[in-house]
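Human:
Focus on the backbone:
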Amino acid sequence: MKLKRYFFGAVAALAVTGAPVAEQVHARAQFNLDQTHENDRGVPQDQTEAAKWYRKAAERGDATAQTNLGRIYLLGLGVRKDHTEAVKWWRRAADQGVAAAQFNVGAMYESGRGVPQDNAEAVSWYRMAAEQGDANAQNNLGGMYKRGKGVRQDHAEAAKWYRKAAEQGFAKAQNNLGGMYKRGEGVPQDHAEAVKWYRKAAEQGIADAQNNLGVINAKGQGVPLDNVLAYMWFSLAAALNDETARKNRDISAKRMTPDQIFEAQRMAREWMAMHQR
């Protein structure tokens, strides 16, 4: 799985004289990350310097620096890429209660990078972060309950965690919650409620949600049957390289007149123009 987010909250400007040491270290590291010069080996000097300064703060126990240093090792920014080191520093930050670091440790256990693959351990770390309100972790914890990975399968519990993330505006969780309502998993089946959550995710550019809205409009589930609107949603998802949506759009076109297709294409262009502002 892809790690969905990393905490990178360094100070944006150099600290003034007299500021706490940790703050000065974060500021120095962020300044170095902002530079663009490269050394003779083609490695950006700013990244090498940033790693050095974050390590200084991390070794003093600063949780933000530990979280950022984990990201540096994960991506190999100015250091040799090392998933084991990434987990080590994230775990130190996680033990200090940093939710984003707890999420990252969970993701590494789920994917088996830097640690032995262990779904139960992933659930444990996701739960720590989720209970602090981390939307990424809430969504992933919902997914673990839905699939029964590292925990007994429980659709009601999955829907609960998806909802917590969805209500924070987390688009993938909104799409997932829409699916739970569409299938009646863990919640009463409710196509209108599915449309509501799919639409929220679709408005944020989630291709799968756009395709799902297309299917719902093509079948008239929770909304009046509308091939023009279905074609529009399929087109938007297809523009994001969703192959299923492209096939669905072509199937829909066979049920439509040329004028209807023209109108759907116009609506898709307008939607994209509006959402690119």
Confidence is low (pLDDT under 50) at residues 1-19, 30-43. Residues 258-275 form the longest helix (18 residues). The two ends are 31 Å apart (CA to CA). Residues 1-93 form one domain.
